[in-house]
Amino acid sequence: QVQLVESGGGLVQAGGSLRLSCAASERTFSSYGMGWFRQAPGKEREFVAAFSRIGGRTYYDDSVKGRFTISRDNAKNTVYLQMNSLKPEDTAVYYCAARSGSYYLTAKDYNYWGQGTQVTVSS
């Protein structure tokens, strides 16, 4: 059973920062591509950032490029999402996900999901 556990969400003022963490099982970390998605109330789950499955290349949605950074600590089997210059429109539940394929942009490309962590940005 693949397990992903997110943490690090919370309430922050606009312009502030948060770092989300996603702890994964060892098998997950070495075998799957990892990504972050978010879902705001009444909206579909949307892509935020991801690693390629091989090579460690990173990808970002245009809305977060330059503000968010995805990173990983292989020794801890953990993926991070550093979020800076947060805006009210970044408010959402953020999900960590793992995939076995190469495509990374849509939720259907991912096989496993964490439980989500709430991020709220006040204006």
Radius of gyration: 13 Å
Structural class: mainly beta
Number of helices: 1
Distance between the termini: 40 Å
Order of helices and strands: EEEHEEEEEEEE
Query: How much of the polypeptide forms β-strand, as a percent range?
Result: over 45%
Low-confidence stretches: none
User: What is the helical fraction, as a range of percent?
Assistant: under 10%
- Work out the number of β strands: 11
Mean pLDDT: 94
The largest sheet, given as strand count, sense and whether it forms a barrel, is: 7 strands, mixed
Categorize the overall geometry. Answer: globular
Can you lay out the helices and strands and say which pair or pack?
Blueprint: E1 4-7, E2 10-13, E3 18-24, H1 26-31, E4 33-39, E5 46-51, E6 58-60, E7 68-73, E8 78-83, E9 92-99, E10 112-113, E11 117-122
Parallel strand pairs: 2-11
Antiparallel strand pairs: 1-3, 3-8, 4-5, 4-9, 5-6, 7-8, 9-10, 9-11
Give a structural overview.
The protein has 1 helix and 11 strands. Helices cover 5% and strands 48% of the residues. The mean pLDDT is 94. The protein has 123 residues and is mainly beta. The strands form 2 sheets. Strands 2, 4, 5, 6, 9, 10 and 11 form a 7-stranded mixed sheet that branches. Strands 1-3-8-7 form a 4-stranded antiparallel sheet.
